[in-house]
């Protein structure tokens, strides 16, 4: 089998990332050399490849599903928002600019060449490439500069399937409207649909499937049922609550309550997934001081806007509550940006350009932001356990006291580190949680056999099972190998007979 396919969605968080991963695992299990690809990703969840490139965490998860090593070419353009209007542009794993929405347009011509080259390289190296779109292809205000949806599909002649989330309602309108809003040239690449997150009576859904096929002339390739307990890496905070709700607390000896502060620019919140996988550990997200009241451990996670989010902590009263708890000897863990907030002083002339800012003063450290971003995959030791992790930060922390803790430090019940992913190391995680429980005075013993990597592998296999058991895989094979079927009808928002159906393609506004 050789070819490629683009998975688009009716909305963000419709299921593009997990369907792409499921397709990758299904093909990999059949012995197909497959790779994921997302041309342009906007996400604060990222990871570092073996050669030191930063890419979206979802593409790393999809590479694991494909059983291949992740590469910068799988996500050549990554946008990391630092505010509502500005983002850092990461190209082939390296930051190149800070831009607003209008300024980003000046980079599009070059980025289009980068995207095309990366996709061509993957297609030469692998039998199949499963591409993931971004947001929705029907964002008509963005079509002219599109790199990841129909712009990519048209440039590379990719067949497209559109996935819709039935759990949020209105899925048939979303599927029809998505196709109907596209230009005729784009519509001819949209081969059909997949419905995601279905939990109901199949016989009630069947008439709708028949009608959407009749209305659009496109097949429904299958219906994926709702599956509890996936909790796979989500791209941004839109999917954070749903992902956590999908991972119910596992029973164990005692209970340890963990509150993760939901920062406005929270990043790499996948760091706490391994905690949520532990039996007896209940993980919640906190926005107010009251949310921290019964927590045994407070986690300050990573952030793309350290100084701004530190200000938010003060405004919400969270800073005072975290400080009070720490001085009472109640455990606090800071990771990357959260660690920086715990320092005595932050000097930032790079990210926020705020200059010197007073930190929470809970750790004996000073932070200075550097123009160059640190991107690496370090190894170390803590609690006598080997730790593998990754680093993504501009802030350089100078430790001025305390006990060593990975690359950071510990003072009393406060820990800080720049290392992401450390909690995925089973031995270290258990030892850390046991220390937290002792410090918090909780009767909690970590389970001796929780293997986070094995749990993730089982989740990826569950995605592959969903594809194999609920989608028309024979039709998908034909689509990958042969492209979109010829003669697909053009659908107009007004339905059959709409005047625009008969208008010359060039007469439509773009």
Automatic annotation (TrEMBL):
Active site per UniProt: 336, 420
Gene behind the chain: cobQ
UniProt cross-references to NCBIfam families, sorted A to Z: cobQ, PRK00784.1
GO MF assignments: ABC-type vitamin B12 transporter activity; catalytic activity
All copies of domain CobQ/CobB/MinD/ParA nucleotide binding, residue ranges: 6-230
Keywords: Cobalamin biosynthesis, Glutamine amidotransferase
ATP-binding in keyword set: no
Function: Catalyzes amidations at positions B, D, E, and G on adenosylcobyrinic A,C-diamide. NH(2) groups are provided by glutamine, and one molecule of ATP is hydrogenolyzed for each amidation.
Protein name: Cobyric acid synthase
Region named Disordered: 487-510
Source organism per UniProt: Actinoallomurus bryophytorum
GO biological process annotation, one example: cobalamin biosynthetic process
A Pfam family annotated for this UniProt entry: CbiA
Pathway: Cofactor biosynthesis; adenosylcobalamin biosynthesis
Family according to the record: Belongs to the CobB/CobQ family. CobQ subfamily.
Domain CobB/CobQ-like glutamine amidotransferase: 257-426
Gene3D superfamilies: 3.40.50.880, P-loop containing nucleotide triphosphate hydrolases (3.40.50.300)
